[in-house]
Amino acid sequence: MDEMSVAVFAAHQAGEGEGLRLTEICRMIPKPPPREGSLGFYFIPPYRVQGFSVAGEVTTIQVPELDVCFDMGQCPRAALASKYCAISHGHMDHVGGLAYYSSQRRFQGMGDARIVCDARIAPSIRRMMEGFIDLEQQTTPYELIELKENDQVEIKNNIFLRGFYTEHTAPSMGYAVIEKRSKLKPEYVDLPQEKLKELKDRGIEITRTLEIPLLAYLGDTQPCAALLRPEVLTAQIVICECTFFEPDHKERAKVGMHMHVDDVAEWLGVLQCQALVLCHVSRRTDLMFARKRLYEVAGQKAEKALFLMDYKAGKARYERQVIESGGTLERPGFRGGPGGGGGFRRGAPTRPNR
Ligand SMILES: [Zn+2]
Ligand SMILES: [Zn+2]
After folding, report:
1. Which residues pair with 155 in a beta bridge?
2. Distance (Å) from CA 119 to ligand 1 centroid
3. Of 182, 299, 160, 145, which Cα lies nearest the Cα of 235?
4. How far is the CA of 174 from the centre of ligand 2 (A)?
5. If you measure from the C-alpha of residue 60 to the centroid of ligand 2, how many angstroms do you get, rounded to a whole number?
6. Which helix (DSSP H) or strand (DSSP E) does residue 275 occupy?
7. What are the C-alpha distances in Å from 20 to residues 4, 26, 125?
8. 44-64+149-336 domain in CATH 3.30.1240?
9. DSSP letters spanning 5-57
10. d(CA 345, CA 81)
11. Which helix H or strand E contains 70, and what residues bound it?
């Protein structure tokens, strides 16, 4: 029984049930429940990066344009739209919503979930999903795609998800999303169509495959070789954790096998990305402080870092993008990202490199 029911019950027992005065009830009225947070949101043309991420509590980061969600600590409604869910490791804050995601996709008629994971944790994921068969007395079909180092799966036409090992306190995997484009080999570029056809008919390979790294998601990791993989260094967008910001928390970062702000600062020196989206900041860490610390250690290089859960910065950036694209903001406008009701009318296409 909650506080108010107890009071009403006590009053009733004392024979005051009928006479309980309105003012007394008003005094007992509890606060409404806290509003559930909106998704963190950034538009990094042409991709949206949206989701939740708080260290130890939840990480779910969706890139709608790529049909993929990275990790599923909880499953917000928007995440259901992603056909693929790539799991970085088995900690509860990264897999807690996985069974729900799979079951809801099925329930909503959105097709079977495709779960991508490190082959080392696949048996455990399967066992977790099996547990729900007993509980629910029904089976949720899903596809489990197991990757080993450098394995890849095609998630959209010519777009691949490649797995690579990272280093954390549990077996962990990061992912790169790579677009493969077929290009003529340089020696054939100037040849006329008929000549090319002739070469092709003779069985000569006239094209080569170009790999364009679109995005990299590192999950929970300590600084490791994966951070320097070419497809990570050259990805347009990099999403990575940064759990510790205090100068004297380096040891904690080491023990938990997480990134410290000093590691991120050093890495920023070699990352070529347009935007580094930082996630997995702890609830105790004030985001203003986090940004200040990053600028202290990384200087101007910190400019390309975006904190996923910084709603204010996300909102300001989005509104600037809308205005620059020739659209108009509808007041009250942005209410915390897509699904929040913040609409805008489009004008000219949004400028890239924002
Ligand atoms: Zn975590
Ligand atoms: Zn973890």
Report:
1. none
2. 19
3. 160
4. 12
5. 13
6. strand 275-279
7. 12, 11, 54
8. no
9. HHHHHHHHHTT-TTT--HHHHHHHPPPPPPPPPPPEEEEETTEEEEEEEETTT
10. 23
11. strand 68-70
Q: What angle do CA 49, 310, 39 make, to 5 degrees?
A: 50
Token pair in block for residue 169:
């306190």
* CB atoms inside a 10 Å sphere around CB 295: 15
251-275 pLDDT per residue, tens = 999 999 999 999 999 999 999 999 9
List 163's β-bridge partners, or say none: 175
Residues contacting 163, CB < 8 A, separation 6+: 86, 116, 118, 147, 148, 149, 150, 151, 152, 173, 174, 175
The amino acid at residue 187 is E
From the CA of 93, which ligand is nearest? 1
pTM, entire model: 0.85
Q: Is 216 helix (H, G, I), strand (E, B) or coil?
A: strand
Tokens of 178: 């790579």
User: In this predicted model, what pLDDT tens digit does every residue of 232-254 receive, in sequence order?
Assistant: 999 999 999 999 999 999 999 99
Instruction: Kindly list the distances between the CA atom of residue 196 and the CA atoms of 185, 188, 190, 201, 205, in Å, as whole numbers in the listed order.
Output: 11, 7, 10, 9, 10
CA of 279, nearest ligand number: 1
How far does the centroid of ligand 1 lie from the alpha carbon of residue 184, in Å?
A: 43
Task: Kindly give the distance from the C-alpha atom of residue 256 to the centroid of ligand 1, in angstroms, as a whole number.
Answer: 10
Structure tokens, 67: 């049909």
Ligand closest to CA 55? 1
Q: Where are the domains of the chain?
A: 44-64+149-336
**What is the whole-number distance in angstroms between the Cα of residue 63 and the centre of ligand 1?**
19
